[in-house]
Amino acid sequence: MGRVLRYLVLAVPLAVGPAAVHGNALVADLSKHLVAITTGFTGADVLLYGAIDGEGDIAVVVRGPNQDVVVRRKERIAGVWVNGRNLTFRRVPAFYAVAATRKITDFAPESVLSRHQIGAEHLRFGQPRQAGDIEIKLFREALLRNKRTAGLYPDRVGRVSVLGNRLFRTLITFPANVPTGTYSVEVFLIRDGVVAGAQTTPLIVSKVGTEAEIFDFAHNQAPLYGIVAIVIALVAGWLAGAIFRKV
Amino acid sequence: MQIYLPIAEMSVDIFLLLGMGAGVGFLSGLFGVGGGFLMTPLLIFIGISPAVAVATEANQIVASSVSGALAHWRRGSVDFKMGLVLLIGGFIGSTFGVLLFTYLKTLGQIDLVIRLSYVAFLGVVGALMFFESIRAMFRRRRQSGTRRRLHEHLWVHGLPFKMRFRKSKLYISALLPLGVGVLVGILAAIMGVGGGFLMVPAMIYLIGMPTSVVVGTSLFQIIFVTANVTFLQAVNNQTVDIVLALILLIGGVVGAQIGTRAGGRLRGEELRGLLAAMVLLVCGKMLFDLVATPDDLFSIDLLVSD
Which residues of A touch B240 (CB under 8 A)? Predict the structure, then answer.
């Protein structure tokens, strides 16, 4: 039965195209497509849920927007630690998290993990030029380590729970310092060591309300923002003096 | 209760910020200093990026120096002409300082320069104040001591462009206050301070102004220099966080009032001695951060687009 199903799953794309097969083998959606950063924001959880067609393991990859990141190494000069050598890595996801039904290496071969960049060690960055392999490796590890420390590349692989070989769900946790931008949530159905289905869902992390307005104001109308900041300070200072003079 | 700071882009406990504002406000009221040299390191310490800390603190100092300057203005202890010359220097210095700040940020060396500036200036000023206050305490005990001469002639008084400052009873070269203004302006931009701790001694010992007008004039100048820093940081780096500045301000205003009242109960040299100890403490912490081996030798930063 399983073999027949897999045959069908593999055969369909030839007829209808990839969208259909993925739609059939795997459907997933998020409880919300917008993580809103408001005044009291302390992090957020987003539920990813879906259904799979028959057997298989699920791997979920959450990627933040790509950024260019400078990695700097401190060197001791005259007793003082000074930023010295630096390398720039391009297309580094601002956030990166993985969730799976069980230990990833137990159900997916290295080649699959590498091709689909599942697991932070498989991320492919735009490599810096003018640097040797050993040095790049060292700086790359430092980049991943710093991201982990900041809580943006969670070390822990999240848990995807499956109900009756059919329904699955996982909770994606975003920390309070989550960078804003367009995220992608990739869901892979891996069966017998091959990707039997995949789906990508976008997710927006954005400041909303007052926070968004202040941020946009500061960036889009910087001179006016500066003047407003000064006026607020002047008025507040004058007000404070006036109030306490009467007390 | 957590509050999300829109420019710093992080969540901080609002009561921690109010407490910091009140604490630094108390000390600044007690000692009659701006408190920027305490607040900026504290902000960096709780995880706010140095760029945001320095720019936002400049904004907060605008507010805290306005109420002080107004009080001095009512008492007539502001030398506006001197303040204006200092201010011109301050504008030049702070504009250059913000440009330097932006450049150092792209080089990745701004943290280092901020820390080095703190160590150098707080170290020198703190040590001078410390010895001076100890000397004063001894002198008071012996009940003797020579009066300082009213005016001394130094090489700086031979400079050209002499101007008359009636309020300060001085006839000196305009280049002198101008130079002091430039230097303090640069520091205000890079260290996120008003610069009072440097300007007040410079006004007394270098320019030779009477003590009665020094604080008022320095506060008057600080308002405009920090306003200039706020504006330029907002335009160049978008690092002024209005929400953060306001919260610090609310705590600071209350703290400063309590501090001012508490300050009346201490003797001048005791106050200066305590202040010196605190300045040296901040200096020591910065020095420690510079020389102690960091947990991770590597750090990451977003590439500043050029």
Answer: 218, 225-226, 229
